Amino acid sequence: MIDAAMIERKIDIIVENLRYLNRVRDTEKKVFLASFEKLQAAKHSLQEAIEACIDIANHVIAAERFARAETYAGMFERLAEENIISSGLKDKLANMAKFRNLLVHRYGDIDEQRVWEMIQHDLADVESYVQEIERYILQKEKEDRM
After folding, report:
1. How many angstroms separate the CA atoms of 113 and 140, rounded?
2. What is the model's pLDDT at position 31?
3. Cα(64)–Cα(12) distance, rounded to whole angstroms?
4. Which of 117, 129, 135 is nearest to 53 (CA)?
5. What's the pLDDT score for residue 108?
6. How many CB atoms lie within 10 A of CB 60?
7. pLDDT averaged over consecutive 10-residue blocks of the chain (146 residues)?
8. What CATH homologous superfamily does 4-145 map to?
9. What is the model's pLDDT at position 15?
């Protein structure tokens, strides 16, 4: 059974990190890239938000007893196969999961330009994921009441 309260806690983590990332998005690129603090905070916020997305995917897959995914990116593929998220969103989130792996395992190889680009162009994908998960949870709760 899906633990809606756990998913909401994860969504809260996503929303909190997106709030910071949306604020820093308005920083001039040159200033952002020159600021060690802004870069580090942005990397951490991206990592936390992506990990919360992964945690939600993992929980839904386990709770619904879907076939196990072998990778974090594969979790989003599984959600798309089960029509929980759109196929277009699947690829974007899979790429974010791969970026998360770079953040966690290869700090020195992180292209700061890529961090900037993600903040400028990819945050809406995380917001869409949250909306699609919330829609799914509401649908499941409705079905459980019937």
Report:
1. 40
2. 96
3. 22
4. 129
5. 57
6. 23
7. 94 98 95 95 95 97 96 95 95 91 73 91 96 94 82
8. bsu32300-like (1.20.120.580)
9. 98
Q: Are 61 and 78 in contact (CB under 8 A)?
A: yes
Phi–psi pair at 85, nearest 5 degrees: -125, 160
> Whats the size of the chain, residue-wise?
146
Both tokens of 51, joined, read 């990990």
> In the 3-class helix/strand/coil scheme, how is the chain assigned residue by residue?
CCCHHHHHHHHHHHHHHHHHHHHHHCCCHHHHHHCHHHHHHHHHHHHHHHHHHHHHHHHHHHHCCCCCCCCHHHHHHHHHHCCCCCHHHHHHHHHHHHHHHHHHHCHHHCCHHHHHHHHHHCHHHHHHHHHHHHHHHHHHHHHHHC
Pair 25, 119: CB distance under 8 Å: yes
**Token pair of 2, please?**
């899906």
Kindly tell me the burial class for residue 49, based on how many C-beta atoms sit within 10 Å of its own C-beta (0-12, 13-18, 19 or more). buried
